[in-house]
């Protein structure tokens, strides 16, 4: 019995390396199996995502099929209606092109645009209440001084004698008045300029109402000027002009060779 013991031990020693190698192989196989399991899980997730995407695409195709089988579109503009019908006998499938439906909607868009254009032209020609009143009267003027006005008097109207523009003949250079030809919104301006060591005060009047004051002061030995541009609602035959402010008697309004340093312009924006 004891004689066989060494032989048994020797056999076990021989088997130990073999078992170790087997264990290593088993560990490697388990590791690979774990990797494969992870890949399978990933594939299953991707498969679920693809199923959801296929379902979504299928629902969209069904919706398009319903829309493509019978499309009734009303293109409505005020006062008129354009109806477009589209019938498609061919049912949509996985390979059917959606171009016919797309091109039809493009045609509807074109018809819609044309309908609104026709309605817009109709409104302009008929003059509906919402149509803006077109300005048919043209009025614009620009006047300055060709020569200085010396020794100004009290409440003296400024006669701007250098008339460069007088569309509609609304400006009267003999009196220095602008007379509104129609009721409307006007843009009226004035620029008052003085030489060094001089000062001056002028007023802009509408009929008997004071609208604005101008008071350039060059008594510091420098040129000075003041200008204003005012939007005014004027009735037909309202009068707008510039005149001296009390206390400006005896002062001078310079011209500087028609340079428009002192000027009086106005324009009709639109009738009312």
Automatic annotation (TrEMBL):
Residues 1-21 form the signal peptide. InterPro entries: C1q_dom (IPR001073), Cerebellin_Synaptic_Org (IPR050822), Tumour_necrosis_fac-like_dom (IPR008983). It is found in: Secreted. Keywords: Coiled coil, Secreted, Signal. Its main location: secreted. One of its GO terms (cellular component) is extracellular region. Residues 134-272 form the C1q domain. Residues 26-67 form a coiled coil. This is C1QL.
